[in-house]
Structures are given as C-alpha cells and as structure tokens.
Amino acid sequence: MNEQRDQTPSPAATSTLEQRGPLFASAAASSGAPFVETPVAYDAILLASFGGPEGQDDVIPFLRNVTRGRGIPDERLEEVAHHYRHFEGVSPINAQNRELKAALEDEVARRGLDLPIYWGNRNWAPLLEDAVRQAYDDGHRTLLAVATSAYSSYSSDRQYREDFARILTDTGLGAPSEGGGDAPVTIDKVRLFFDHPGFVEPFYEGVRDAVAAYLADGLSAPEIRVLFSTHSIPTADADRSGPRDVEWPEGGAYVAQHRAVAEHIMSRLAEELPQAGASGWKLVYQSRSGPASQPWLEPDINDEIAELPAQGVRAVVIVPLGFVSDHMEVLWDLDNEAMASAAEAGMSSVRTRTPGSHPAFVAGLIDLVEERLRGTPAAERPALTPLGPWFDVSRPGDSENARLGFRPAAAGILP
Q: CB atoms < 10 A from the CB of 40, how many?
C-alpha cells in the first residue's frame, strides 16, 4: 500500500462514534477524532513495556504471565525457557528500559518539561498496575503513555490499550470518586511511531554502515542482501492489524508498515550511497512460537538465509526492524540462530543496532509527547512513509485479537 490513505473517518467509522463506551481517555481523545489537535495538559508520562525475568527463579512465573489464560502447563513452558536459561534467567529488556527511562528523563529536563516518568510492564515487575497507582498517589491524573512497540498488531498496540482499561477498571481509578470530589485517571497513548524519523534513523545508520563496510571489503552490491527482520505473528492476527475501514493488503497494517519503512531505508541508501543501489532486500520473520498447523507470517529468516548462496549472495545484513531494543528475541534468535545460519551457508553476516537509547530515538519519543502537549496538527507531524503519521485515537476494529475478540481499550473507538 503505497498511497496516502484517507485519514478522515469513513461513514461507518463516524456512525460508530455514537456507540462509544468509556474510553478511559482524556476529554480531547474521547472526541473520537483520529488526531488530537488541541493541547492537552498531561501531568505525567507512562512508559509501558513487555517486561522480562531477572533471574532463574523468575523465568517460569514470567512465562506463566505471558501465556495466562491459555492453559499451558509448566512442563511446556520449561521447553521454551531455555533461551532465558542460557542467559542465567535474565532478559535484557528491564535493564534497557531503565536506561531508556533515564535518557527520557534527561531529555524531558533538557526541554524544561515538568513531566515525571513512571515505568511499568505487562508481564513482570515493575508492573503497569503499580506504576499507575504510584502516579495516582503522587497526584497525577492525566497520563500519556509511551509503549516500547512501534507497529500495529494486537500485542504491540491494542493489548497495551486493553491493559490501561483493565487497570483503570480494576483499581477504580478510572471512575470519578463518590461525590465527584476526585477526578478519574485517564491514559492516552502517543501515536505508533514506526515511521517517525527518530525511530528510523538508528536503523538507517546501521544499514548504511554495514553495506558500506562490505563494499569497502570488495564485495559488489548484488552480493549483499539486507534482511529486515520482525516478529512473526499468526496471519489471522496480521490480517486484523490496522483499522477495519481501510483495505489492507495481505498481512494488514503490520506487514504494510514494516515494508514501508524498509522501502524508505533502502531508497535513502541508494540516494546517499549510489554504489549500494543494487543491494537486494527482503522483509523476513523470526521467533515463531505457534503450532505447525497454524499459519504464521513467512519466510522465516533462517530459511531465507539458506537460500541466499544459490542467488550469488556472499554477505547478509540482518536488521532487527521490528524491535525497539536488544531484548531476548534479538540476542537469541538473531545473534545466535540467524548468525549461525549465515555461517553454515558460508556467508559473512552482521546484525545492525536497535534504537535502544540512541539520541535520535530518545528525542523522537519526547517529540511525540510534545505533539500531544501542543496539539500539533496532523499535517505538521513528521512521518517518513505514506502511511503516516499514524492516528492518536485508534480507529474502529483496529488490531482485534482473533482468539479473544474485542475487549475494553483506552483511547480508541469501539469496537
């Protein structure tokens, strides 16, 4: 999908506005408009992430949280725990979030913004529930969430908004106090940032530097292949990603967004490094965890690598395009398995960096916060692909869970 989509709600979407239930959102976001173009006086930032174990004793309880509601016995969880066991039971994601939080706090202070940052995870301490409760206890009522996920899908977008709605419901913080004396807590979420310059820049730098190094070593551009890797998800979930009133190609918004970013990076590379223009690229997938009978997005990165020598490829650049930081799926599935696949195929390989706490990424996230503080018009918001800027308020039917259906979610239009 290469054309700019119409960002005005369709008649079907507009009629849905009348059916909205509690949105757990600020008054501005509750209007149902796709973009919040009026200033909102947020008083705190909520950094929301996935979470990970920090010791061997944490691994199985963490995996129980991740798979809650699916009835998976501990024996099967132990079969998938070996990635964490290999790293002494420690996922790097919490340490990376601490580093990101500190960098964001420095950027907030540098800009003179009076916004404390609270960090909470979906699956492991510190939990989102505790972060929201602490913000409330500190007197904050209008929160703006920044999730460490950039693309449309259930787990990377809608599930966070469902988390916010569940927490505000379970704690009672999302409802006015008796007598109306205390305002309820609301949680909005910054737009998905898959094509924001701050997110894309670290990936571009990594691709540019890796390809340039291979060219300097004497390889020709056709002998170099750039593989943009992201988490595979069930095709049924991928097809449900993105608003329902947009006709998406196969794979929904999830695939379209990744492909658009990869196209931008390779186009820019050809402009700035013309000798690299003939380097091929492909969007590939990793970390599949479902049964063989269930269709998931393909091709798997390891299968793709195995095919490259027959195509005359001698070097591969592995780009973790779907990941914000070097968490377990990057360290194990790419740095271990994919690099081993390249070695078995007799090819050189390099894995480029993730955004992590790159200055451009940190600044970009606070730019997104300031968009909402100022009510920046959509036409003035930066986006590097025709798909952006993405919506502030999720559109009807966006990223339904194929197994669970629609559940209450913050800052979105029903269903």
A: 20
Assigned token pair, 79: 């079969």
Q: How many helices and strands in the chain, by DSSP H and E?
A: 14, 8
42 is in an annotated binding site: no
Q: What are phi and psi of 220, to 5 degrees?
A: -90, 160
For the chain, which residues make up each domain, given as ranges?
Answer: 11-193+358-380, 197-351
Of the candidates 56, 55, 81, the one whose C-alpha atom is nearest the C-alpha of residue 67 is 81
- Residue 170 neighbours by CB distance under 10 Å: 10
Q: Does domain 197-351 have CATH number 3.20.20.370?
A: no
Residue 136 annotated as lining a ligand binding site: no
SS3 120: strand
For residue 74, what are the contacts with CB-CB under 8 A and spacing of at least 6?
60, 64
Of 24, 22, 18, the C-alpha closest to 410 is: 24
Q: How far apart are CA 218 and CA 209, in angstroms?
A: 15
Domain 11-193+358-380: which CATH number of 3.40.50.1400, 3.40.50.880, 1.10.10.60, 3.40.50.970: 3.40.50.1400
* Contact indicator for 187, 168 with CB cutoff of 8 Å: yes
pTM score = 0.93
379's enclosing H/E stretch is none
**For residues 116 and 140, is the Cβ–Cβ distance under 8 A?**
yes
Taking the chain (415 residues) in runs of 10, the rounded mean pLDDT of each run is: 34 35 82 94 98 95 91 89 93 97 98 98 97 98 98 96 96 78 90 98 98 98 98 95 91 98 98 95 94 93 98 98 96 97 98 98 98 98 98 92 88 81
**CATH topology agreement for domains 11-193+358-380 and 197-351:** yes
- Is-cis flag, bond preceding 408, omega within 30? no
Q: Is 285 annotated as a binding residue?
A: no
Q: String of b and e for 67-77 (b: at least 16 CB within 10 Å)? A: eeeeeeeeeeb
Indicate the burial class of 79 (C-beta count within 10 angstroms; 0-12, 13-18, 19 or more): exposed
Query: Do the annotations mark residue 271 as ligand-binding?
Result: no
Q: The tokens 């798997």 sit on which residue?
A: 300
